[in-house]
Design goal:
Helix content: 25-40%
CATH architecture: 3-Layer(aba) Sandwich
Number of strands: 9
């Protein structure tokens, strides 16, 4: 099986582990510090603000944090079983079954979150997806996402399944952000020596 075939299996993998994944993650604080940093960059918390969570999974800590800061949350995920849990956990949210490579909207968001999700996008689609996320931001909107600090694609076993990952690397990501009128506001190799990078950009 080649890398592209593995990438196509992502929805089924997450459907298969949805309940287990939710139980493991529901009480975690993983990523919340970065999200708080992004929220603080979003401006007036007294106005109506909308957030898009790409690869929202079953919801949980990130959605709770967004809702506690008065964001109306829309979640997009390729796993129907993950979304069913998210809907049950967060009835005030909007939950959409879709693929960020193909999903389109005319909405513009104050904050877009893609925490450990778009690294499953095929290597040759990474630039298109990042450009699309930047385009979905309001002026002054904040994008928080994670990538791998490497260039290329690979398969890694997790929960006894083979998951596809890809990355354009830090420098290319920053180039794409700049070309899409997003300015870097924070970059951190937050799990060093693991190759995990958190990036926050702001639409100008």
């Amino acid at each position: 099986m080649n890398c592209r075939d593995h990438a196509a299996n992502i929805p089924g993998h997450y459907d298969a582990i949805a309940e287990k994944w939710h139980e493991e993650q529901k009480d975690s604080s993983y990523g919340t510090e970065a999200l708080m940093r992004a929220i603080a960059m979003c401006g007036d918390e007294h106005k109506r603000r909308i957030a898009l969570d790409i690869g929202c999974g079953s919801g949980g800590r990130m959605v709770r944090l967004l809702e506690s800061h008065a964001f109306q949350v829309t979640g997009l995920d390729c796993s129907e079983k993950m979304l069913a849990i998210a809907h049950a956990q967060h009835p005030a949210g909007t939950w959409i079954h879709g693929d960020i490579m193909h999903w389109k909207t005319s909405e513009k968001y104050d904050l877009i979150l893609a925490w450990d999700s778009i690294f499953h996008v095929p290597f040759d689609k990474q630039e298109d997806v990042l450009n699309s996320l930047c385009d979905m931001l309001k002026k002054g909107g904040i994008l928080l996402y994670t990538i791998g600090d490497e260039i290329g694609e690979h398969i890694s076993d997790w929960h006894e399944r083979s998951f596809y990952y890809s990355s354009l690397g830090i420098e290319k990501n920053l180039e794409i952000l700049s070309n899409s009128a997003c300015r870097l506001r924070h970059l951190e190799l937050d799990q060093f020596p693991l190759k995990h990078c958190t990036i926050i950009g702001k639409k100008v």
